[in-house]
Amino acid sequence: MLSAKVTNSCDYIKVQSADFDMAFEYQRLRESEINDGAVVIFVGLVREFSQNKQIKSMFLEHYPAMTEKALGAIVADARIKWPLGQVSLIHRIGYLAANAQIVMVGVTSEHRHAAFAAAEFIMDYLKIRAPFWKKEMTNKGDFWVEAKTSDNEAVAKWQQSGLQETI
User: Fold this and answer.
1) Integer Cα distance of 3 and 62 in angstroms
2) Can you list the pairs that 45-51 forms with residues at least 24 positions away whose Cβ atoms lie under 8 Å?
3) Rg of the chain, C-alpha, whole Å
4) What confidence tens digit (pLDDT) does each residue in 95-127 have?
5) pTM of the model
6) Whose C-alpha in 7, 49, 74, 95 is 20 to 30 A from the C-alpha of 55?
């Protein structure tokens, strides 16, 4: 583990190079909030193909102090907007092979609507607010990944609905 931060007694935020165990992380969410009726988990993977290039691997780097602060603020914003139980946010760094797990967002809530919305919100804001830099190693060379228009559009959706960030 490179860094970990707890922003709320029910929040688990970790940036690490090691892979995570989905069964373990799911169990952590289930055991922490016994009154919640919904558990939503999203896992992002390294794609094998991106922009007509076959990806062999990806390298992710970050600035620890900035990253922890940004991830904590995103989770705190989600907590303001929805009644959440446990929130787990794990993001990997370093070299990752194609199909490797990159990120996991897990959210519990009394009801599914809040859990789904909060997980999507966290991922959308993570894509544009968390300081991670990604380099793809492909069959056509190595390329730093640029911000995508679709990521900004996803956040714009939250802002238009009045669910923008408070940071």
Assistant:
1) 11
2) 45/99, 45/100, 45/101, 45/102, 46/96, 46/97, 46/98, 46/99, 46/100, 46/102, 47/98, 48/98, 48/99, 50/136, 50/138
3) 16
4) 999 999 999 999 999 999 999 999 999 999 999
5) 0.86
6) 74
